[in-house]
Design goal:
It contains 21 helices and 6 strands. By secondary structure, it is mainly α. A hairpin with a 3-residue loop joins strand 5 and strand 6.
Length: 585
């Protein structure tokens, strides 16, 4: 192996290796986030009972991937349990004799592995566009992205869905040179994304159009150059021959013979008729769509071959949802998928409490997600995203590739901005994937210092990411005060998703033994399981609360009047994992 190729391979292994170390370490230290118990318990219901009755708002594939990990733990599951999905998750982790640490780690490992595989997709896509240096730059940004590390180490569905969608767009791009096998594989990747999260549905029309364009481009006419006829060699003039005397009975020949009619020129080889090109493009795109639909159906059949499904009570009537309801009815997917969409619309029609830049509010301002992205993304990465998009727009040969990266990012971002749930940048986890590929093209700028500046910005991203280790979930960049200040600007999955119960137990045992603890916790974990002996402050009057008041920062962000009374006169004295604050009263 040439030395340069070996060094390149070592660089790729080093970046993915540090990412794997960061994710595994984080996975081992964090207790369940709010959503994980539901997904893990549903995965076990899929595996052991082959039933679709839990968590219909999300398709099965992501949870089947989680089940591939939990199968190694072989947890006990009460087949007669009748609680809802939230209680089922708590029952499986804490009340069935299972080890929640081991079970959660096994559930998270398949997502970690998948996240590393998507890093190779980022590398390959950027390398296709900008060569080896561009691939390395894109991989560096991806592998040090705090958001990707944070959510790639959890047994959730955001990273799998975004990574599968990126894979579909990359394969569609590759189909511009040859349709096989890339377009069928793109259909499978799109189907996998749709079978993991319904939030990728707005990207489908874009991918279909790009697939048709790629198929058209792959058939571009290869005009056969006409073979030039060899020029005749100059010949010496023949000596004149004596004229023959005409025979007496012979008819005189005409002065000139008529020239034969010219044969029509053959069509150049390699020219594909217009109708054929259109037909092939339509057929290829149709095949891609059918493969995607088949993958969604297969994911449901893997859970229950009978496809038994009873629609939940209380779903909105599609006729009352206008165009949204019409879209649901026309989806070529199982009824369970359609009911899951209706459940999502039911959630979207609610009003939630949000928190941004120190202010609590009701509703969903359009600017929430852009501001959250500015807070949660490393500064060097933001600069390289912008530079990459400009580079692709300026360099003519990259403009076509721009259509495979930026429009889908913009459409999904706009859809998220109109959503009602301002709970975290996990809803736009596709940005550190798609825009990172675009950032890799910066190495093509014909400026003397371009590569050096790009390398320094990537180094700044790496340093910022490593400084927050292992607290990736509450990360924010230096312009907004860093990780320690995130809870003053954002809440929920941006900073405090209930992940620090084990750290809190260690902190209380080591630094505050034998003190009275009053706990206001937001999460899915069970504090007493981790040895936290506490009292509920809501059971007494605020003036009776003395000792340590421990509050999840998401509760502080959306403070209620009762909690505000508790916090009045309380002094913050410590932090746990940058997501829980300890006060003294």
């Amino acid at each position: 192996m040439p030395r340069r190729r070996l060094l390149y391979l070592l660089a790729v292994v080093a970046m993915l290796g540090q990412m794997a170390f960061a994710m595994v370490t984080t996975a081992m230290q964090q207790t369940p986030t709010i959503d994980e118990p539901v997904y893990v318990a549903t995965a076990e219901v899929y595996r052991q009972q082959h039933s679709l009755r839990y968590n219909p708002e999300h398709p099965p594939l992501g949870k089947l991937i989680i089940a591939a990990g939990t199968a190694f733990a072989d947890p006990k599951l009460d087949s007669g349990y009748t609680g809802n999905q939230t209680r089922l998750g708590r029952h499986l982790l804490y009340e069935s004799g299972n080890n929640p640490f081991q079970l959660l780690l096994y559930a998270r490992l398949p997502i970690i592995l998948l996240t590393l595989v998507f890093g190779l997709v980022v590398l390959a896509f950027a390398r296709d566009l900008a060569g080896p240096a561009g691939g390395l730059l894109a991989l560096a940004l991806y592998s040090f992205s705090p958001d990707v590390i944070a959510h790639g180490s959890l047994a959730t569905l955001d990273v799998p869905a975004a990574g599968m969608l990126l894979t579909a767009f990359w394969l569609t791009w590759r189909a511009r040179t040859t349709m096989m096998p890339y377009l069928p594989l793109a259909g499978a990747a799109l189907g996998a994304a749709l079978a993991t999260r319904m939030s990728v549905l707005p990207a489908v029309p874009l991918l279909v159009v790009l697939a048709a364009w790629s198929a058209w481009h792959a058939q571009r006419p290869l005009m056969a150059q006409p073979t030039p006829e060899p020029e005749p060699e100059p010949a010496s003039e023949p000596e004149p021959e004596p004229e023959a005397e005409p025979e007496p009975d012979a008819e005189p020949e005409p002065d000139a013979k008529p020239e034969p009619e010219a044969e029509p020129e053959p069509k150049p080889k390699g020219v594909i008729p217009l109708g054929w090109r259109i037909g092939v493009s339509v057929a290829a795109t149709t095949a891609l769509g059918l493969i995607a639909i088949a993958v969604v159906w297969i994911s449901y059949l893997l859970v229950d071959r009978r496809m038994y499904w009873a629609s939940p009570v209380g779903l909105p009537n599609p006729d009352d949802l206008g165009l949204r309801g019409l879209a649901v009815e026309w989806l070529p997917f199982p009824q369970a998928y359609k009911d899951g969409m209706l459940t999502q619309f039911k959630f979207e029609d609610k009003t939630y409490t949000g928190f941004l830049l120190g202010e609590s509010y009701k509703g969903s301002p359009w600017y929430y997600m852009p501001v959250a992205i500015l807070i949660k993304t490393p500064l060097g990465m933001l600069a390289l995203w912008a530079a990459g998009m400009i580079t692709m727009l300026v360099i003519p040969r990259l403009r076509a590739a721009l259509l495979y990266l930026v429009p889908v990012s913009a459409v999904l971002l706009l859809v998220t901005m109109t959503g009602s749930r301002n709970f975290g940048t996990r809803y736009v986890i596709f940005l550190p994937m798609f825009l990172t590929v675009a950032a890799g093209t910066v190495v093509l700028i014909r400026w003397r210092w371009a590569k050096i500046v790009a390398g320094l910005l990537a180094l700044a991203v790496a340093v910022s990411s490593m400084l927050t280790f292992p607290y990736y979930l509450p990360y924010s960049n230096e312009a907004f005060g860093g990780t320690a200040n995130t809870h003053n600007n954002l809440h929920d999955a941006n900073v405090d998703w209930g992940q620090d119960l084990a750290r809190l137990a260690q902190k209380l045992k080591a630094d505050y033994p034998d003190e009275q603890v009053w706990l206001v916790y937001k999460g899915s974990g069970v504090p007493r399981y981790y040895g936290i002996d506490y009292r509920d402050p809501y059971t007494v009057r605020p003036e009776e609360i003395h000792g340590l008041l421990v509050v999840s920062d998401s509760r502080v962000a959306t403070v209620t009047p009762r909690l505000k009374l508790m916090l009045d006169g309380a002094t913050p004295i410590d932090q746990v994992g940058y997501s829980i604050t300890i006060y003294r009263r």
